[in-house]
Amino acid sequence: MRIALLTPVIVTPSITASRDFYVWHLGFRTVFENDWYIHLHGGGDPHTVEMGFMLPDLPEQHPAFRPATNGAGLILNVDVEDASAEFARFQAEGLAFIEPLRDEPWGERHFTLHDPAGLVVNITQKIEMRADFAAQALDPAITGPTGG
Length: 148
Description:
The protein is of the alpha/beta class. The protein has helices at residues 15-26, 83-92, 131-134, and strands spanning 9-11, 29-33, 37-42, 49-54, 75-79, 99-104, 108-114, 120-126.
């Protein structure tokens, strides 16, 4: 199977606050919106990143699509060119962080925060891996800041 696109749909009562978070802070744009569903595009190419927000408990939806997320157990990684600059910008915008900016030995400079639906958003930049982590990589292309 060749996957053309992976689009997460977050079921939350906070669809407008979620839309605003991703539009204002992460540069997404709204491409569809009605009373119960909002669809966003992000990135340069319209089909690079898409995500949707849907209200919970909609009777017209299958029961599997009705429960709202509580945010636990899902991390959205957002790779950026300069995590330090984004951290400073988010600080200036008054956002609260789960974890401040830090470098990790597995080749990541990152910070984390919650979105309005309670999901963990990890803003990350690839940096050089520490040698012991790089030795564990199955694909040598992922060991440096341009890999992955």
